[in-house]
Amino acid sequence: GELFGEYNLITREWTDGTLSSCMREACADEKPDLKWILMDGPVDTLWIESMNTVLDDNKLLTLISGERISMPPMVKCLFEVEDLSVASPATVS
User: What is the pTM of this model?
Assistant: First the structure.
């Protein structure tokens, strides 16, 4: 839940994670300025595969709450990683 967010089954409330919060803010900003979301750290198979639809032509982050955050052309993602040994070929391309 830390990165993408989590749904509390008891209270039925959604809480944004770090990435979903940053993406929501950057994607909602309609200024024509370029916005960068920088991710620095090791690649983990659990979260990088969830980023495939953000990185492909769909440019769409789908959260477990069912919400979809569309990434406009002025928002870019940059990954600074040590290696991509656990990433699939689809993620790397």
Answer: 0.80
